[in-house]
Amino acid sequence: MRGLPGWRRVAVPVAAVAVIIAISYALAELSESDKAANWAQLASVALGVLALIPPVVGTWRERRPGRTSTPDQVDRAEQALRVLVRAQWREEILIRELDEPSPLPVRWRISGLDVMDQDDRVDRPRFLRSWFGLGRVRFDGRTDRMPEMAGRFRKLARRRLVILGEPGMGKTTLAVLLLRELLEDPQPGDPVPVLLSMSGWDPEAESVHTWLVRRLRENYSALRAPDFGPDAARGLVAHRRILPVLDGLDELPDKVQPRVITALNAAPTTEAVILTCRTREYLTAVSLPGGDVLAGGAVIEPRPVKNADVIAYVRNRLAPRQAASWTGLLSAIKNDPDGPLADALSTPLALWLLGKVYIETHADPAPLCDTARFPTAEAVTEHLLDNLVQATFAATPPDHDPADPHDHDHPFRPHRAWDPEDARRWLSFVAHHMSVTGTRDFRWWHLHRAVSRRWSTLVGGVTVGLTVGLTVGLTSDAIVALRSPHEGSLWNALLFGLAGGPVGGLVGGLTGGFILERLKGSTLEPAYANLRLGGHLQRLAGQLTLGLVLVLPVGMIAAYALWRVAGISSEAGDFIFFGLVVGTVGGLTLGLNRWVTTPLTSDRPQAPLITLRRDLQLVYGRSLTFGLALGLAFGIAGTLVNGFSGLLRGVEAGIAFGIAGGVVFTLTFGFTGASSIYFVAVSMLRLRGRTPRRLMSLLEDAHRMGLLRQAGPVYQFRHARLQDRLAQLHQRYGPAGNAPASPHDTREVERS
């Protein structure tokens, strides 16, 4: 857990448990009700105390120093990672339409800027350059001839490449296509190319080695599976099994960019690397004091897209009925090659936007030729960006045919129908949230950062506390009234449960909320339940032992409080028996729950929606298991030590407490899981009109339509410029969610 010294990790939970017990004792001493009522009230608080154990223990990330994966485990991890990356980018290339029959031929060549290392350090020795000093490093290529570019990359002395270009010129597209080519035709000894966004990285705070290991764990959680050893990601980086494809150096602060290049030059684990950056930012980074070029790296830039290629590309995408309405635009490009329209459409990004906003929607492109309305290339591009989301959702019907119940598998259509304006408003908020947090990755388990922490803690504590208090208070009072020799009717017990249960519940709920607020620095990550015993018996034994060590003392403390305060029995041996039963069952259940909680293995998909569903199944499955097991132990042990004879009565009381315990742990332990916190955040944001109720469904549909891309369990906007533009649009939405006063609104795009 980050942000807390080691002693605080123990002191905070221990102090919290002590405070709850002290408050419970005071409530019981001050109350004028009989022992049965005190017992009921303390039962609700005791369950609340035990419910805090899983989230507190869950924040402890035990890391045994010095443990590394074996070479065989690293080999298996490399093979699994190669399969995952290949499957991921095959789908993304299809969704992003990078494999269309007539792709746009973007030409690349060695940069003419003074931003490259000496030729003999970049390229392998050649006869003319070695003997006569003639010729330069050659790296010519085209995006429609990727095998040639991959072969040229492999011939570089250190396999280091810097891809420069202005916004929208296809830097990331080239990196993705090169990554795919290297994966599809691997050579012996080739490392696994992995594309990572550099957003948020500072080499002074986190070394290259540490950052790469962390990002591999985040984006490919299968590497943390037990099959690959304790630290497969670190082994892959240390043994140079990874080819980092680092996207977006220009997205880092100006002062950080030179540090990244310097760190890459000094890092022994990044011999091969591919780096993308805007031309101006890279030139500035290498020119600043302390800056340097990427050692041994070839630097390439795109040539301007030819007007003839633009015209051919557009014509190839038009339907026969559209040809007549596009004559004017194509003539404008041909007759005014230096005009704003031709200038804007000289980038791959603008051409893709043109296809989405006008070609696929069958809209009339004539307004784009109006130089008074669009005097610059930037105005044309901004207009296309502003209308992209609405046009895409309007032009792409959902993949649903009521007459065919099996028609749900079209890969590029949404599953649901969304209002285009609402979709743009919601995606604008997502883009704004990502920009505020300084990242290009949307991690659904980090959405709670968009909600006020204090309000979410207060609302969650009150809601959970009241529900838990009522549930446990009513259940325990009913059992006491029906089964104990104490005087009092069932009606009186239920009344006290209604009055006193929420008191103990609020104490536990608000205290638990406070603890979780203090432990907010810990990162909850999605996981799933793995019940396979093969090869995991040692880990199971270790987790069961840890659970007993952690929970047995708490069970004894709770039993002592019930014995001294509520007077459930006059015999000291009874409270010891009670504590041992509850503590043992609770410890074993906790250990079992920790053992089944496993990162996604190599045979599991890692798409965001799938990780959310599996984490939700895990969270509520283990919550109900923990609650029912502990409730049964609590009820049966309490019944036996209170003098009731017969197993039947103990089982009856135990089932009642088990149901209450299941509710308690579902509403406490359950709400500390990654998926539960996400749903709480979505609910609060939904009330404010920021997101839809099914946010992940919206993002999945946006991904299917090509607006987003997947990187393991996270979403990214297809282009950084799209995210930035949507984040700006979010600022113009009013509190009521009214449409922004955009100068280039979608409603101005007329259908032909």
From TrEMBL:
Domain NACHT: 159-252
Domain of life: Bacteria
Pfam families: NACHT
Chain ranges passing through the membrane: 38-57, 455-474, 494-516, 540-563, 575-597, 618-641, 653-685
Region (Disordered): 733-752
UniProt entry keywords in alphabetical sequence: Membrane, Transmembrane, Transmembrane helix
Keyword Transmembrane: yes
PROSITE patterns for this protein: NACHT
InterPro entries per UniProt: NACHT_NTPase, P-loop_NTPase
SUPFAM superfamilies xref list: P-loop containing nucleoside triphosphate hydrolases (SSF52540)
Protein name (Swiss-Prot/TrEMBL): NACHT domain-containing protein
Taxonomic source organism: Planotetraspora silvatica
UniProt lineage: Bacteria, Bacillati, Actinomycetota, Actinomycetes, Streptosporangiales
